[in-house]
Design goal:
- The chain is an alpha+beta fold and 103 residues long.
- It has one domain.
- Helix content is 40%, strand content 33%.
- The protein is built from three helices and five strands.
- The strands form two sheets. A three-stranded antiparallel sheet has the order 3-4-5, covered by helices on one side.
- Helix 2 packs antiparallel against helix 3.
Length: 103
């Protein structure tokens, strides 16, 4: 797996509208979390702990998170997933990923 540069991740996050500038202030509410997931996937793939398919699934979840369709967070080193129902982010279903564990 080729190394992904921090600049490539930054550009991707800009394309996903996760980083924007307003009057010299940078807003990146989801960018730090997204970066942590991408970096974790790279590390786990290098260690042969994740398959390409598992990484693809994590990135799909991450894209949905960036679009506001899923809520993702780290809890005890595990990526937690919660679907967000249309129009009401407080009424959610919890789903836990099997391989989403951060060390």
């Amino acid at each position: 797996m080729n190394e992904i540069s921090p600049l490539a991740i930054l550009e991707w996050l800009k394309e996903e509208n996760c980083i924007f500038i307003e009057e010299n202030v940078y807003y990146a509410e989801k960018a730090f979390f997204a970066n942590s997931v991408v970096r974790w996937c790279i590390k786990e793939r290098k260690a042969k702990k994740l398959t390409r398919t598992e990484i693809d699934n994590h990135i799909r979840f991450l894209v949905l998170f960036l679009k506001g369709k899923l809520d993702l967070w780290w809890e005890d080193g595990i990526i937690k997933v919660r679907t967000i129902k249309k129009g009401d982010s407080s009424d959610c279903n919890n789903v836990e990923t099997e391989n989403g564990k951060q060390e």
